[in-house]
Amino acid sequence: MVQSADRPFLRLFVTPSVLVAGGFVASLAAILQYSLRAYIPGELEPGGFSLSNFAELLKPLYARAFLDTVLICAETAFFTLLLAYPLAFALVRTKNPVLKSVLLVTAVTPLFLGEIVRTYSWIIVLGNTGFVNSLLKAVGFINQPIQMMFTTFGVVVALVHVTLPVMVIMLAAAISHIDRDYEKAAASLGAGPLRTFLTVTLPLSLPGIVAGVTTSFAWTFSAFATPQLIGGGQVSTISTLVYQLGFANFNFPFAAALSLAGIVFTVLVIALLRRAAQPLEKMGGHA
Amino acid sequence: MRTSALTWLLRIAVICVVGFLLLPAVVVFIAGFNDRAILSFPPQALSLRWFERALTYGDFRHGLKNALIVMLWTSTISIVVGAAFAYALNRYEFRLKHTLEAILTSPLMIPHFTIGLGLLMLGTQLGFGRTYSIVIFSHVVIVLPFVIRSVYISLQNLDPRLEMAATSLGAPPWRVLVTIVLPLLAPGLFSGWLFAAILSFNEFTGSLFVTSQATQTLPVAMYNYVREYADPTLAALSTIYIVITATLLTIANLYLGLGKVLNVEQSR
Description:
- By secondary structure, chain A is mainly alpha-helical.
- Chain A is built from 13 helices and no strands.
- Chain A has a single domain, classed as MetI-like fold, CATH 1.10.3720.10.
- In chain A, 74% of the residues lie in helices and 0% in strands.
- In chain A, helix 1 packs across helix 13, helix 7 packs antiparallel against helix 10 and helix 8 runs antiparallel to helix 9.
- By secondary structure, chain B is mainly α.
- Chain B is globular.
- Chains A and B meet through helix 1, helix 3, helix 4, helix 5 and helix 6 of A and helix 1, helix 3, helix 4, helix 5 and helix 6 of B.
């Protein structure tokens, strides 16, 4: 390849990222290759070519896990959106700089704490001798602790907390780019604040909602520590199954097939969400 | 008045959400000072023994050392690779440009357990499974999308006329790069590096698959601890974590303006 004068550093600058991309693609190819080989119990090295892993995927157990995972992802995305919107709105629109920076740091700090610290905190909040149960007991609401650990409810609560910051950031970015003249126009034409919000602000923030929901979906699908520790084996998601298959059963071929199905599934769902949102975004009519 | 009723509704909602965000941090903070060896609430007696254990526990110290080694390599490699790629992406047209971009940013959407599993399999086949290099490579793959995006945004805000001026005055391309582009890009490069470092330090799921006992990073050591013990040591460690992170972010917000970095400032 000839280095042209207007692209002096092309080869130098692109080569490192080609190497990284190559390694990454090779690792995905390794998953594909493992998924097409037979599992020999008690052996780390997989056997010859076989499609049995993909046949195994069709078992009700795994269809069920996919369904459970999707439900958890959907619930998490819904509640995260519900909680994140008012916070993002206040964060962008408040005129008090101190309040703004408090809201910003509160919303963003959890993002940098990592999955373990956040999940562990929720174990103390939700456990049978934890914060919520002790509080309710002290007040006299309950005699027996409410079981929240090892339930889907507990997993969803913790996952909402995990995905809230990124949703707030994406919504705030969208809300901050709304031209406020549209709102003023609606108000001057006689729309009340609620109507202005519902017919102008909310539709104009749709790109942020779509970005937030898809990211929340991908993150929840990818989450491992939260369903593993708070679910405690009672809540099976694709991520916990892949780990269990790989590191408890050493069935790497099937773990590979399941992850592959996971990738295809995530890509499909995200494409579907974006497709479904397209007419809505057009309705938002961004100038 | 309807205006004030709505405003109050918004205020109450915001207070509830902030409460929800802070609740675990407050609870973990109190739990860390609990003298008893089981997680229970509220604490009967206070003590600092779990802080002492958290700071002296062998696996945590070892994990911290590994996490720092991996973090420094990851953030440095990914800022070099990511900045170079972002520059090419912003300034050049080349074959397979969009394919390469799609591959490098796909880890944003691909589950981390898949990335970890794939690199574990590849590493095992190539004979360097579970070494530092495979851990660092997996982190580079995971943080690179964030670095590329961060540097790309800084590049977009760079006035190309400055470079043209230098070129028209006879500066060769490498000199324009070193004396014009790099200094102007420095804040963007630093925030990209910092972002990569923080993400790498906290990365758990990917690390769990590719680390061994010898290379386990702090989040993996913490995970193993929760599975083995039920005492408040991890609450103490989490408290240290939360205090350091919140302090750093408050400072970053004061000096860098987090709102601008995250693109959430009201535009007019």
